[in-house]
Amino acid sequence: MNADIRQKFVVGNWKMHTTAVQARQLAQGVIDSVGSDDHLTVIVCSPFPYLAMVADILKCSQVALGAQNMYPEAEGAFTGEVSPTMSLDIGCSYVILGHSERRHTLGESDRFINQKVVCALAAGLNVILCVGETLEERTSQRTERALDRQLSCGLTGIPAEALLRLGIAYEPVWAIGNDEHHATAEQAQEAHLLIRRKLAQIYGEAWATRITVQYGGSVVPANAAAFLAESEIDGVLIGGASLNAREFLQIITAAKCAPRAVMLPA
Questions:
Q1: What tens digit of pLDDT does each residue of 185-240 get?
Q2: Which member of 99, 101, 108, 192 is catalytic?
């Protein structure tokens, strides 16, 4: 693998969807068609009840398994929660943290999300940290302020060397599952540039070029290639389209054909 090329990521977040039968069929459909690519990482994140089953299906394949969330403790009296060590134990190598639904529907704070990031990395999980602005923040010209806050808080206490196991996913809240508002590839690229600039302020320019920044905002086969062609977009975090193996594989194909960005030496 060429260490000077940033990886492309295609992450399927199944959210609170699928039955056991559907999860099995979907996982099998993905691995049956995914080939190997040294510069492409494919991850599926199933609901918690099906993680062990999906892990068994993905075993020895080119597809990695991720959890959709976790609690920031290794164990304890936290009824209904799942620890990072539990996710690792059943085969997860990634976890999504700070997703907009966790922030805005379930009320998770920047500080709580940071606790999760610190705990997940310490346990050995790779982290996908989600950030993004609301429609109100965008229309009032506060996109950069919102991204700065979420990144500054979310990455508190994270040393540069840990960034090799951490990626950022930009998901504009106003564009997720919204028929009235759609982000263009150019708008996504602008936000990714803001994120990369903030990362450079925190860790230096060289480290900022080594962090993968994915886009997640209603990505479908029809628009995936346009997003992935942008120089600062290193992959896509997919919701609805990941529930259809054929559509998911079309997006993977677009990622394979997309240009890769070069990293600066750390």
A1: 999 999 999 999 999 999 999 999 999 999 998 899 999 999 999 999 999 999 99
A2: 99
Q: How far is CA 146 from CA 133, 141, 160, in A?
A: 6, 10, 22
> Shortest CA distance to 128 belongs to which of 214, 254, 228, 8?
214
Bin 124: left if φ > 0, else alpha if -120 < ψ < 50, else beta.
Answer: left
* Count of other CB atoms within 10 angstroms of residue 223: 20
Instruction: Walk me through the domains of the chain, giving residue ranges and CATH numbers.
Output: 8-257 (3.20.20.70)
In the chain, % of residues over pLDDT 90? 87
Which tens digits make up the pLDDT trace of 99-142?
Answer: 999 999 999 999 999 999 999 999 999 999 999 999 999 999 99
Distances (CA, A) of 29 to 42, 70, 119, 248: 13, 27, 33, 10
Residue 92 class from Cβ within 10 Å (0-12 exposed, 13-18 middle, 19+ buried)? buried
Would residue 99 show up in a list of annotated catalytic residues for this protein?
A: yes
**Which ranges in 82-124 belong to alpha helices (H)?**
84-89, 100-104, 110-123
**Which H or E element spans position 12?**
strand 8-13
In 3D space, the residue among 207, 180, 209 whose CA is nearest the CA of residue 266 turns out to be: 207
Tell me, what amino acid is at 18? T
User: How many angstroms separate the CA atoms of 12 and 37, rounded?
Assistant: 17
Annotated catalytic residue, options 171, 230, 232, 247: 171
Tokens of 210: 């080594």
What is the Cα–Cα distance from 12 to 14, expressed in whole angstroms?
6
- Residue for token digits 């959890």? 67
Q: Which amino acid is at 131?
A: V
Mapped onto helix, strand or coil, the DSSP state of residue 39 is coil
